[in-house]
Amino acid sequence: MPSSVSYAAQPILEIGGQPASEALMEDILQISVEESLHLPGMFTLVIKNDYFPGRTQDQTWRYEDLFSFGKPVKIGFISSTTQAQEFANGKQDYVLEGEITAIEAHFTSTSQAPIMIRGYDVSHRLHRGRYNRSFQNMTDSDIVKKIAGEVGILTGTIDVSGAPHDYVFQENQTNMQFLKERAARNGFELFVQDGKLNFRKPKIDDVLELKWLTNLHSFQVRISSAEQVSEVEVRGWDYSQKRSIVATKKAEQVLTETEYGRGSKTSTAFQGKPPTPKMIVVDQPVFSSTEAEKIAQALFDELGGEFVHADAKAEGNPQIRPGRVVKLENMGKYSGQYYVTETCHCFEERVYTTEFSVRG
Protein backbone atom coordinates (compact mmCIF):
# COMPACT_ATOMS: atom_id res chain seq x y z
CA MET A 1 0.00 0.00 0.00
CA PRO A 2 1.33 3.48 -0.80
CA SER A 3 1.99 5.67 2.19
CA SER A 4 -0.31 8.63 2.72
CA VAL A 5 1.12 12.13 2.67
CA SER A 6 -0.71 15.13 4.08
CA TYR A 7 -1.13 18.22 1.94
CA ALA A 8 -2.79 21.57 2.57
CA ALA A 9 -5.95 21.61 0.52
CA GLN A 10 -5.36 23.56 -2.67
CA PRO A 11 -6.71 23.70 -6.21
CA ILE A 12 -4.76 22.98 -9.37
CA LEU A 13 -5.72 25.06 -12.39
CA GLU A 14 -4.65 25.20 -16.02
CA ILE A 15 -6.01 27.76 -18.48
CA GLY A 16 -5.27 27.40 -22.17
CA GLY A 17 -2.75 24.65 -21.43
CA GLN A 18 -0.73 26.83 -19.02
CA PRO A 19 -0.65 26.70 -15.21
CA ALA A 20 -2.51 29.57 -13.58
CA SER A 21 -0.31 32.30 -12.13
CA GLU A 22 0.26 32.60 -8.39
CA ALA A 23 -1.54 35.94 -8.42
CA LEU A 24 -4.63 34.40 -10.00
CA MET A 25 -4.63 31.49 -7.55
CA GLU A 26 -4.52 33.96 -4.65
CA ASP A 27 -7.47 35.89 -6.09
CA ILE A 28 -9.71 32.85 -6.55
CA LEU A 29 -12.65 33.05 -4.15
CA GLN A 30 -14.38 29.82 -5.11
CA ILE A 31 -14.04 26.83 -7.39
CA SER A 32 -16.76 24.26 -7.90
CA VAL A 33 -16.70 21.24 -10.19
CA GLU A 34 -19.82 19.15 -10.74
CA GLU A 35 -19.67 15.80 -12.52
CA SER A 36 -22.43 13.34 -13.37
CA LEU A 37 -23.00 10.13 -15.27
CA HIS A 38 -26.16 11.71 -16.70
CA LEU A 39 -25.24 15.35 -17.44
CA PRO A 40 -22.24 17.30 -18.74
CA GLY A 41 -19.60 18.08 -16.15
CA MET A 42 -19.66 21.76 -15.13
CA PHE A 43 -17.22 24.13 -13.47
CA THR A 44 -17.44 27.60 -11.94
CA LEU A 45 -14.55 29.91 -11.01
CA VAL A 46 -15.21 33.02 -8.90
CA ILE A 47 -12.34 35.51 -9.06
CA LYS A 48 -11.74 38.55 -6.88
CA ASN A 49 -12.07 41.85 -8.75
CA ASP A 50 -12.17 44.83 -6.38
CA TYR A 51 -12.44 48.43 -7.49
CA PHE A 52 -11.07 51.24 -5.30
CA PRO A 53 -10.18 54.43 -7.24
CA GLY A 54 -6.75 55.76 -6.37
CA ARG A 55 -5.38 52.51 -4.92
CA THR A 56 -2.50 51.39 -7.11
CA GLN A 57 -2.28 47.98 -5.44
CA ASP A 58 -5.66 46.96 -6.90
CA GLN A 59 -5.46 46.15 -10.59
CA THR A 60 -9.08 45.95 -11.64
CA TRP A 61 -9.84 43.76 -14.69
CA ARG A 62 -6.29 42.39 -14.82
CA TYR A 63 -7.66 38.94 -15.77
CA GLU A 64 -10.12 40.26 -18.35
CA ASP A 65 -8.09 39.10 -21.36
CA LEU A 66 -7.16 35.74 -19.87
CA PHE A 67 -10.56 34.14 -20.41
CA SER A 68 -12.36 33.65 -23.72
CA PHE A 69 -15.09 31.38 -25.05
CA GLY A 70 -13.89 27.90 -25.93
CA LYS A 71 -10.57 28.21 -24.05
CA PRO A 72 -9.68 24.87 -22.38
CA VAL A 73 -9.60 24.70 -18.59
CA LYS A 74 -8.33 21.87 -16.39
CA ILE A 75 -9.18 21.77 -12.69
CA GLY A 76 -7.90 19.48 -9.97
CA PHE A 77 -7.32 19.40 -6.24
CA ILE A 78 -4.74 18.31 -3.71
CA SER A 79 -5.98 17.35 -0.26
CA SER A 80 -4.93 15.58 2.90
CA THR A 81 -6.58 12.38 1.61
CA THR A 82 -4.41 12.25 -1.50
CA GLN A 83 -1.79 9.52 -1.74
CA ALA A 84 1.64 10.41 -3.05
CA GLN A 85 1.84 7.42 -5.39
CA GLU A 86 -1.43 8.43 -7.09
CA PHE A 87 -0.15 11.92 -7.74
CA ALA A 88 3.04 10.58 -9.27
CA ASN A 89 0.92 9.62 -12.26
CA GLY A 90 0.57 13.28 -13.18
CA LYS A 91 -3.10 13.27 -14.17
CA GLN A 92 -4.81 11.62 -11.23
CA ASP A 93 -5.23 14.97 -9.51
CA TYR A 94 -7.41 16.54 -12.24
CA VAL A 95 -11.17 16.07 -11.92
CA LEU A 96 -12.40 17.97 -14.97
CA GLU A 97 -11.19 19.07 -18.39
CA GLY A 98 -13.60 21.61 -19.82
CA GLU A 99 -14.19 24.60 -22.03
CA ILE A 100 -15.33 28.11 -21.12
CA THR A 101 -18.94 28.74 -22.16
CA ALA A 102 -19.94 31.78 -20.05
CA ILE A 103 -18.22 34.85 -18.54
CA GLU A 104 -20.01 36.95 -15.92
CA ALA A 105 -19.36 39.95 -13.68
CA HIS A 106 -21.40 40.85 -10.61
CA PHE A 107 -21.18 44.56 -9.77
CA THR A 108 -22.03 45.20 -6.12
CA SER A 109 -22.51 48.25 -3.90
CA THR A 110 -19.30 47.45 -1.99
CA SER A 111 -16.88 48.31 -4.84
CA GLN A 112 -16.53 44.65 -5.74
CA ALA A 113 -17.20 43.12 -9.15
CA PRO A 114 -16.18 39.45 -8.92
CA ILE A 115 -15.74 37.66 -12.22
CA MET A 116 -17.43 34.30 -12.73
CA ILE A 117 -16.14 31.88 -15.32
CA ARG A 118 -18.41 28.96 -16.18
CA GLY A 119 -17.96 26.04 -18.51
CA TYR A 120 -18.63 22.40 -19.27
CA ASP A 121 -16.67 19.34 -20.21
CA VAL A 122 -16.53 18.61 -23.93
CA SER A 123 -19.79 16.64 -23.84
CA HIS A 124 -21.61 19.99 -24.13
CA ARG A 125 -20.80 19.78 -27.85
CA LEU A 126 -23.19 16.82 -28.10
CA HIS A 127 -26.06 19.09 -26.98
CA ARG A 128 -25.59 21.60 -29.82
CA GLY A 129 -27.90 21.19 -32.80
CA ARG A 130 -30.57 18.64 -33.76
CA TYR A 131 -30.19 16.16 -36.58
CA ASN A 132 -32.26 14.00 -38.91
CA ARG A 133 -30.10 11.23 -40.35
CA SER A 134 -29.66 7.49 -40.61
CA PHE A 135 -26.91 5.01 -39.74
CA GLN A 136 -26.78 1.77 -41.72
CA ASN A 137 -24.98 -1.49 -40.94
CA MET A 138 -23.34 -0.08 -37.82
CA THR A 139 -23.23 -1.20 -34.21
CA ASP A 140 -24.14 1.25 -31.46
CA SER A 141 -20.46 1.36 -30.53
CA ASP A 142 -19.59 2.33 -34.11
CA ILE A 143 -22.21 5.09 -34.01
CA VAL A 144 -20.73 6.48 -30.78
CA LYS A 145 -17.25 6.58 -32.30
CA LYS A 146 -18.52 8.25 -35.47
CA ILE A 147 -20.40 11.02 -33.66
CA ALA A 148 -17.55 11.57 -31.18
CA GLY A 149 -15.21 12.07 -34.13
CA GLU A 150 -17.60 14.56 -35.73
CA VAL A 151 -17.58 16.83 -32.66
CA GLY A 152 -13.89 16.36 -31.85
CA ILE A 153 -14.21 14.33 -28.65
CA LEU A 154 -11.66 11.62 -27.89
CA THR A 155 -13.01 8.20 -26.96
CA GLY A 156 -12.16 6.30 -23.80
CA THR A 157 -13.78 2.96 -22.94
CA ILE A 158 -16.12 1.88 -25.75
CA ASP A 159 -17.60 -1.52 -24.93
CA VAL A 160 -18.81 -3.81 -27.70
CA SER A 161 -22.56 -3.35 -28.05
CA GLY A 162 -23.51 -6.32 -30.22
CA ALA A 163 -24.38 -7.03 -33.84
CA PRO A 164 -24.70 -4.23 -36.45
CA HIS A 165 -28.12 -2.70 -37.04
CA ASP A 166 -29.51 -2.68 -40.56
CA TYR A 167 -30.87 0.81 -40.03
CA VAL A 168 -30.99 3.31 -37.13
CA PHE A 169 -32.56 6.77 -37.47
CA GLN A 170 -31.75 9.89 -35.47
CA GLU A 171 -35.00 11.83 -35.56
CA ASN A 172 -34.70 15.54 -34.73
CA GLN A 173 -32.55 14.75 -31.69
CA THR A 174 -29.40 16.24 -30.27
CA ASN A 175 -26.44 13.90 -30.47
CA MET A 176 -26.59 13.50 -26.70
CA GLN A 177 -30.27 12.53 -26.72
CA PHE A 178 -29.65 10.04 -29.49
CA LEU A 179 -26.58 8.44 -27.91
CA LYS A 180 -28.23 8.31 -24.47
CA GLU A 181 -31.07 6.40 -26.11
CA ARG A 182 -28.62 3.92 -27.67
CA ALA A 183 -26.83 3.55 -24.31
CA ALA A 184 -30.09 2.87 -22.44
CA ARG A 185 -31.04 0.05 -24.83
CA ASN A 186 -27.72 -1.65 -24.07
CA GLY A 187 -27.70 -0.98 -20.33
CA PHE A 188 -24.61 1.19 -20.87
CA GLU A 189 -23.43 4.48 -19.41
CA LEU A 190 -22.52 7.41 -21.65
CA PHE A 191 -20.36 10.07 -20.02
CA VAL A 192 -17.22 12.14 -20.43
CA GLN A 193 -14.38 11.82 -17.95
CA ASP A 194 -10.83 13.15 -18.29
CA GLY A 195 -11.75 14.60 -21.67
CA LYS A 196 -12.82 11.26 -23.18
CA LEU A 197 -16.25 9.88 -24.07
CA ASN A 198 -17.08 6.53 -22.46
CA PHE A 199 -19.78 4.11 -23.64
CA ARG A 200 -19.63 1.18 -21.27
CA LYS A 201 -21.38 -1.27 -19.00
CA PRO A 202 -21.30 -0.09 -15.35
CA LYS A 203 -18.40 -1.73 -13.57
CA ILE A 204 -16.28 -1.50 -10.43
CA ASP A 205 -12.84 -0.10 -11.23
CA ASP A 206 -11.68 0.46 -7.67
CA VAL A 207 -13.18 0.89 -4.21
CA LEU A 208 -12.56 3.87 -1.92
CA GLU A 209 -13.25 3.34 1.79
CA LEU A 210 -14.82 6.17 3.77
CA LYS A 211 -15.55 6.34 7.50
CA TRP A 212 -18.35 8.31 9.09
CA LEU A 213 -17.07 11.09 11.42
CA THR A 214 -13.55 10.62 10.05
CA ASN A 215 -13.50 11.56 6.36
CA LEU A 216 -17.26 11.29 5.79
CA HIS A 217 -19.05 14.25 7.39
CA SER A 218 -22.68 13.44 6.59
CA PHE A 219 -24.65 10.74 4.81
CA GLN A 220 -28.36 10.72 4.01
CA VAL A 221 -29.71 7.50 2.54
CA ARG A 222 -33.17 6.27 1.53
CA ILE A 223 -34.15 2.69 0.75
CA SER A 224 -37.48 2.49 -1.08
CA SER A 225 -39.42 -0.41 -2.55
CA ALA A 226 -41.47 1.92 -4.78
CA GLU A 227 -41.56 0.82 -8.42
CA GLN A 228 -39.69 -2.41 -7.66
CA VAL A 229 -40.79 -5.48 -9.62
CA SER A 230 -40.02 -9.19 -9.62
CA GLU A 231 -39.41 -9.43 -13.37
CA VAL A 232 -39.28 -7.44 -16.59
CA GLU A 233 -40.69 -8.71 -19.85
CA VAL A 234 -40.05 -7.16 -23.28
CA ARG A 235 -42.29 -8.06 -26.21
CA GLY A 236 -41.85 -7.41 -29.92
CA TRP A 237 -42.65 -8.82 -33.34
CA ASP A 238 -40.35 -10.32 -35.96
CA TYR A 239 -41.88 -9.18 -39.27
CA SER A 240 -39.60 -11.35 -41.40
CA GLN A 241 -40.34 -14.58 -39.49
CA LYS A 242 -43.92 -13.64 -38.56
CA ARG A 243 -43.47 -14.58 -34.93
CA SER A 244 -43.43 -12.88 -31.55
CA ILE A 245 -40.27 -11.95 -29.67
CA VAL A 246 -40.39 -12.29 -25.88
CA ALA A 247 -37.57 -11.85 -23.36
CA THR A 248 -37.87 -12.03 -19.56
CA LYS A 249 -35.38 -11.12 -16.84
CA LYS A 250 -35.92 -11.97 -13.17
CA ALA A 251 -33.00 -10.26 -11.40
CA GLU A 252 -31.33 -6.88 -11.62
CA GLN A 253 -27.58 -6.33 -11.91
CA VAL A 254 -26.59 -3.35 -9.77
CA LEU A 255 -23.32 -2.22 -8.19
CA THR A 256 -24.77 -0.56 -5.08
CA GLU A 257 -25.11 -3.20 -2.37
CA THR A 258 -26.29 -2.80 1.24
CA GLU A 259 -27.49 -5.23 3.89
CA TYR A 260 -31.05 -4.48 2.74
CA GLY A 261 -30.37 -6.59 -0.33
CA ARG A 262 -31.84 -5.79 -3.73
CA GLY A 263 -35.01 -3.98 -4.65
CA SER A 264 -36.65 -6.86 -6.54
CA LYS A 265 -36.69 -8.92 -3.32
CA THR A 266 -38.97 -6.33 -1.69
CA SER A 267 -41.54 -6.33 -4.49
CA THR A 268 -43.49 -9.22 -2.88
CA ALA A 269 -43.15 -8.03 0.72
CA PHE A 270 -46.74 -6.78 1.01
CA GLN A 271 -48.56 -9.99 1.92
CA GLY A 272 -47.84 -11.26 -1.59
CA LYS A 273 -50.21 -8.76 -3.21
CA PRO A 274 -49.60 -8.63 -6.09
CA PRO A 275 -47.84 -12.01 -5.99
CA THR A 276 -45.39 -11.35 -8.83
CA PRO A 277 -45.39 -7.69 -9.91
CA LYS A 278 -44.13 -7.55 -13.46
CA MET A 279 -43.14 -4.78 -15.86
CA ILE A 280 -44.23 -5.51 -19.43
CA VAL A 281 -42.73 -3.38 -22.22
CA VAL A 282 -44.30 -3.28 -25.68
CA ASP A 283 -43.31 0.17 -26.97
CA GLN A 284 -39.63 -0.50 -27.73
CA PRO A 285 -38.58 -1.45 -31.28
CA VAL A 286 -37.15 -4.97 -31.04
CA PHE A 287 -35.67 -6.96 -33.93
CA SER A 288 -34.19 -10.06 -32.26
CA SER A 289 -34.35 -12.12 -29.07
CA THR A 290 -30.85 -11.01 -28.15
CA GLU A 291 -31.82 -7.36 -28.42
CA ALA A 292 -34.99 -7.96 -26.38
CA GLU A 293 -32.96 -9.60 -23.61
CA LYS A 294 -30.54 -6.68 -23.47
CA ILE A 295 -33.39 -4.18 -23.22
CA ALA A 296 -35.15 -6.23 -20.52
CA GLN A 297 -31.96 -6.43 -18.45
CA ALA A 298 -31.25 -2.72 -18.91
CA LEU A 299 -34.74 -1.76 -17.74
CA PHE A 300 -34.52 -4.11 -14.74
CA ASP A 301 -31.16 -2.61 -13.81
CA GLU A 302 -32.61 0.89 -14.07
CA LEU A 303 -35.49 0.03 -11.73
CA GLY A 304 -33.15 -1.78 -9.35
CA GLY A 305 -30.92 1.28 -9.21
CA GLU A 306 -33.81 3.32 -7.82
CA PHE A 307 -33.89 1.14 -4.69
CA VAL A 308 -31.13 3.16 -3.01
CA HIS A 309 -30.76 6.94 -3.05
CA ALA A 310 -28.01 8.63 -1.05
CA ASP A 311 -26.39 12.05 -0.64
CA ALA A 312 -23.14 12.58 1.24
CA LYS A 313 -20.55 15.19 2.15
CA ALA A 314 -16.94 14.18 2.69
CA GLU A 315 -13.50 15.67 3.09
CA GLY A 316 -12.25 16.94 -0.22
CA ASN A 317 -10.96 14.00 -2.21
CA PRO A 318 -10.27 14.10 -5.98
CA GLN A 319 -10.53 10.32 -6.09
CA ILE A 320 -14.31 10.45 -5.51
CA ARG A 321 -15.63 10.48 -9.07
CA PRO A 322 -18.80 9.38 -10.87
CA GLY A 323 -18.53 5.75 -11.93
CA ARG A 324 -16.54 4.73 -8.87
CA VAL A 325 -17.53 2.87 -5.73
CA VAL A 326 -17.25 4.03 -2.11
CA LYS A 327 -17.37 1.48 0.70
CA LEU A 328 -18.96 2.36 4.05
CA GLU A 329 -18.62 0.25 7.20
CA ASN A 330 -20.02 0.32 10.74
CA MET A 331 -23.22 2.02 9.63
CA GLY A 332 -25.69 -0.73 10.50
CA LYS A 333 -27.70 -2.14 7.61
CA TYR A 334 -26.60 0.82 5.51
CA SER A 335 -23.05 -0.52 5.40
CA GLY A 336 -22.00 -1.62 1.95
CA GLN A 337 -20.83 -0.44 -1.46
CA TYR A 338 -22.32 2.61 -3.13
CA TYR A 339 -21.92 3.39 -6.83
CA VAL A 340 -21.32 7.13 -7.20
CA THR A 341 -23.32 8.84 -9.96
CA GLU A 342 -22.78 12.55 -9.18
CA THR A 343 -20.10 14.61 -7.42
CA CYS A 344 -19.49 18.24 -6.52
CA HIS A 345 -15.97 19.32 -5.57
CA CYS A 346 -16.04 22.72 -3.86
CA PHE A 347 -13.11 24.91 -2.79
CA GLU A 348 -14.20 28.03 -0.88
CA GLU A 349 -12.42 30.10 1.77
CA ARG A 350 -9.50 27.65 1.48
CA VAL A 351 -11.72 24.73 2.53
CA TYR A 352 -12.10 21.79 0.16
CA THR A 353 -15.08 19.43 0.40
CA THR A 354 -16.58 16.77 -1.86
CA GLU A 355 -20.29 16.03 -2.05
CA PHE A 356 -21.52 12.95 -3.87
CA SER A 357 -24.81 11.28 -4.72
CA VAL A 358 -25.96 7.76 -5.47
CA ARG A 359 -28.81 7.40 -7.96
CA GLY A 360 -29.99 4.65 -10.29
Strand and helix layout:
Layout: E1 10-15, E2 18-19, H1 22-27, E3 28-36, E4 42-47, E5 72-78, H2 84-87, E6 94-105, E7 115-121, E8 131-138, H3 140-150, E9 154-158, E10 165-173, H4 175-186, E11 189-193, E12 196-200, E13 207-210, E14 216-223, E15 231-238, E16 243-249, E17 257-258, E18 278-281, H5 289-305, E19 308-315, E20 325-328, E21 336-339, E22 342-348, E23 351-358
Parallel strand pairs: 9-12, 13-20, 15-18
Antiparallel strand pairs: 1-2, 1-5, 3-4, 3-22, 4-7, 5-6, 6-7, 8-10, 11-12, 14-19, 15-16, 17-21, 19-23, 20-21, 22-23
Helix pairs in contact: 3-4
Tell me the number of helical segments per DSSP (H or I, 4 or more residues long).
5
Given as residue ranges, the uncertain stretches (5+ residues, pLDDT < 50) are 1-6, 84-92
β-strand amount: 35-45%
Estimate the mean pLDDT confidence. Answer: 90
End-to-end span in angstroms? 32 Å
User: In sequence order, what are the helices and strands, one letter per element?
Assistant: EEHEEEHEEEHEEHEEEEEEEEHEEEEE
Structural class: mainly beta
* Count of β-strands: 23
Q: How would a textbook summarize the main sheet? A: 11 strands, antiparallel
Taken from the alpha-carbon principal axes, the silhouette is globular
How do the strands of the widest beta sheet line up side by side?
A: 2-1-5-6-7-4-3-22-23-19-14
User: Domains counted in the coordinates: how many?
Assistant: 3
| C-alpha Rg (nearest Å) | 24 Å
Helical content stands at: 10-25%
